[in-house]
Structure formats: structure tokens, C-alpha cells
Amino acid sequence: MADNPLLVLTQNPYGAPAFDKISNKHYKPAFEAAIAEARAKVDSIVNNADDPTFENTIEALEFSSRKLSNIGAIFFSLNESNTDSVMQALALEISPVLTGYSNDIMLNEKLFGRVKTVYDAKDSSGLDAEQMRLLDETYKSFTRNGANLSAEDKLKYREINTELSMLGLKFGQNVLAATNKFVLNITDSAQLKGLPQFVIDMGAADAKAKSLTGWAFTLQAPSYGPFMQYSENRELKEKIWKAGSSKSFNDEFDNQDNVKKIAGLRLKMANLLGYPSHADFVLSNNMAKNQATVNNFLQDLLVKFMPYAKKDLLEIQKYANANGFKGELMPWDFSYYSEKYKNEKFAINDELLKPYFKLENVEKAVFHLADTLYGLKFKENSSIPVYHKDVKAFEVYDSNGKFISLLYVDYFPRESKRGGAWMTSFRESYVYKGEEVRPFVTLTLNFTKPTETDPSLLTFDELTTFLHEFGHALHGMLAEGKYPSLTGTNVARDFVELPSQIMENWATESEFLSSFARHYKTGEAIPQELVQKIIKAKNYLSGYTSVRQLSFGIIDMAWHSLSSMTDKSVVDFERNAMKPTQLLPLVDSTCFSTSFSHIFAGGYSAGYYSYKWAEVLEADAFSLFLEKGIFSREAADAFKNNILSKGNLMDPDILYRNFRGRDPKPEALLEKLGMSGKTMQ
User: Which is catalytic among the residues 339, 395, 462, 469?
Assistant: First the structure.
């Protein structure tokens, strides 16, 4: 084991992962060694002859599996961003072992007895606020993971938990395989009609990479989105839309059984733990607290947004008909006509904007924004090993020169990476034996690749995505605290999107855009006229897009609010749940749930509502920046000191009140979106 790079402290700066030495063969023995080490530490806690104390039980347990956590963070991060068949097989082998280890900890009666002894004496323990928070969260973690179950029910819990861990992995693997399988290969240039040159160049580069002639378009967002927006070939748009809307549905990577099994097992687990549904279980630990709050929240917004959404759709329908389209718009028509209408109404489109959003310039601008607001400095270090040639590593320092974090940025799509964009960490922030350990944060994105003729030029949506994920990164990098389980993004699911979504606001602020947007060829600053068009168009289709996002939250709640498992098919259940949000015609042979990785393979089950929930928070929070100035250090310090650095040291509603001086005002979101507080007549 001495030569396993996952087990020894590297000579890289800050003990960064030795990606230049790590290979698939190292993972299994590293997991086995780290589990053995963690078990030995837990055994020493359980068998300690001294009376249980915070230090010898709660704090000791918190740090008992640090090595295992770090190895797991590396392996499962790379299994999402740079996987292969060997890693996927390893994940299926390792996951139940890790679940078994976790179950052994949480269901250990003697260990829980020690935890409970410390917990019951907490009022006279003299613990400080951070220690008290860790004690409360540790005790709650045990009770939410089966510690109070009978011996018989503990066996059931183990079986369910193990099966769920496997099903989530299989679900994600199926979606990745289905995404990668589809390729629209065009060999007749006449079928490229309507596509801007940047889309054609991207298609040619993708075809070349796949050893195909002509042009290739895929279900990866940088390829799929522009093709749907610009192609004049309705038949091909229908083909690619149907492929994207039927991933893992009635194909060789079918997830229908996995959807029902996951939903059913989550319900069984919730029932074992004393909750009527999985949603009740999840929400009891979130800001929202219960189903009624979430369902009322979603329905209230749906009532407010739906008239605006219908108005948006009617406008696009009328525009399409006025431009020769016959009949009712289908889903594969909407992007095309809405993009054309936007261009006509606001004289703005990605073809106009992309030349001003060169990736390197956007990166520099986002880093500079972090410097302006939070005093952070970013220094690329090419000597730090990375896991793929596209990845860049940065050292991050504060204004006093103190090391804050490593930041790994992975920009471009590839077949080994799942779709979407996300932030995670290879290592959390904490203090151990008096030494502060700083985090290793990763940003994983799927942006437009450079071509043979042009650098990577981002769409406006990609610029917004960068800011969003960077907000998560700030939450991780600026973490402070002694205990890793309480720092960074380890917060309630419906609070974690606040730091990310607030950052999106700068994308439509003139001062920020004007500070960096330069034409990649001429160096010309973005014309103010174009900036004003971006600002004017920021709420374009906000009703339609808001209802679409609400529909995702509603289907999530439908699957996870079940108190008895449905006998309906996945597609029938989905359509019944989403019917109140339906705007465009339904299409047979399509299904959304089978590729809804956020809730079936990620951590957002009974939590997708949190995107809209956090939008309310961020709209209210950003109003302070609008009041003080979008580059205000006073506002930024308040946000950093009360939100970004605090992690889970307090309940999120307390953190928010400490920041804003009051509870959030729900009407802030409607004001931001240009909608009145009342339903539109």
C-alpha cells in the first residue's frame, strides 16, 4: 500500500491528489485499506473504557473516516467526469461495500449509545456553538439512518439502502450510455440550412472526433441546443428532440424499472423510519420542513406564472404562423421560433453575442468579480496534476495572501463525462489537531469547444451557467469551520442553490458585462447597445421557462410524495402529474422521468423545488447589492460572513436573517421577473 497514490500524502502542493499517478487499479485496494482504517478508529471509540464525551465520541467519529471520504470524493467525482467501463464496473462493486460500512456505523447500538449519552447531557456540557451544532447533527444523522429501529427493521434498512445505492448508479450509467449512443450524422450540406457558422464548425469538429464524414450533432447541450435553435430542417429537429426526450425509455438502456424501484424503495425506507413518504422524510430536514409548504409554494407560483407562460407561448405561436408555419407548434418547433422572435424583438442572438464571450476572457472576468467582491486571487498552477488534459488547476488566495483553496476547472464535453454542470469537492475544509485544512473544489462544465478556426466562444446561457456553478464554488472555497460535515455546501438542499443563483444576476448587469466583453478578433468592447439589449431581453419567456422548471419540481414531488406505490406505468404517472403544467402538445414515445438524473441518480429527490425556492431567496438577497452597488464590498462582506463562510453552522433561516436583517420577501422574485404580485388578468 505504500506506493498507492490514493493512500500516501503526495508531494504535490497542498497534498493535492496525484492524478498523474492514480489509475483504476489503485481504487479498490485504497478503498479496502481506508475502510479498514476507519473501522479500527470506530472500534476504538466504541470500546473506549472512558465515559463518552464530546471529544472521545462525537469529534473522534467526525474525523474517523477522513481518508475514506477523500478517496470516495475523488473516485465518484471522476466516475461522473472522466469515466470508463472499468470505473463503472468498480462503482457497482464498491458502492454496496461503502453502503455496508455506513450502515455498520449508523446501526451500531453501542456507538449510538455513546452518542446518545453525550447528546442527552448537552445542556450541561459547556460546548460552544459549533460543537453543539455538530452534536445535534450527529445525533440526527443516526436517528435518520435507522439507529432507533428494531433489529429486524435494521436488516430491512440495510437491504434497502444497499439496493438504492446500486440502482442510483445504474440509472446514471444508463442515461450516460443513452446520451452517448445518439449521433445525428449529416453528410448533405443542404441539411445545414439555418445553422450559423459556429454551429456548423462545431458539428464538423464533432464528426472529425468521431471519425465520421460531414457533421455530427449529439445530445450534449452545446451541440443539441444550438441545433434546435437554428436548424431549418424540421424533420431533423424532430428526430434529435425525440432522441433527447426519450433517453433511457424503451431502449437498451431503459430506466423505467429503475424509476419505480427507486421510488418504491425510498417509500419503504421512509415508512421504516416513521414517515408517510420519502418527501416527508427529506423535507423534515430542509428549510421547507413539510410537504404542504412545498406543494403550496409550487402551486402558488404555478397560478402566478401560468398566465405569463400562456402569453409567451401564444406570442411565439402567432409569430410562427405569421412567418408561414401551419398548425400548432410542436416541442421541436419552439426553440427555433422563439429564437427567431427574440432576434426580431430584441435584435439579439448567440451569433451576435458569442464573439464577445471568449472563454478565457469570461474566466478572467469571473475571477476578477470574485476578487472585487471577496478579495480572492486566482493563480493557475500547471504543476498540479489533473485528471484530464482539458482540466486546469488554480491556487486561490485571499487579499492577505493566505491560501484558500485549489480550484479545478473542467470545461468541455466528452463521452466520458455526463451532461450538465456541477460543483463538487475532492476535499472539504476543516481544522484537525490545530491545523487548518483547506478545500479542493472542482467545477465541471460542458461548454462549447474550440474549433480548428475559433477559440471556445460561450453562449449567453453558458456565461450564466459559469456564474451559477462558480457561486457553488465560492460556497466551497470560502468555507470556515472545524468540522468537515458542517462546512461549505453541506447545507439544506433548498438553501444550497442560493450562493449559485445569486451569481447569475451579474450576467445581466451592464457594469459587469462592459468590464470584460471584447470581440475575440478585433478586441472591440461590446457595444453598449448590445448590452442594453441583453438587459432588456433578460425576462424573455420568463413565464414559460418558470412553468417548465416548476413542472420538474412537481413531478419530483409526485414521485416522492407517494404513500403507496403507484400501479401506473412511468409515463402515465408522469403525464398525470405534469398535466397542470403542460403547455406544448404531448408526444408519444417520450418520457422525462427515465433521464431525470437530478432526482433518481443525484441528491435532489423531493428537493428539485429548491431551485425556485432559492430563486426567491436570491432575488431578495441581490436587492441588497442593487441597493449598495453590484460591486459593493459591504454587501459582499455581509453575504460572505453570514452565508458563504458559515456552511451548516446554523439553521439556514437564521443565517439568512443574519445576512438580510429580516426574512426574505417572496414578492422579490415576481418583481425581478417583471411580474406583478397578482395573477395576470
Answer: 469
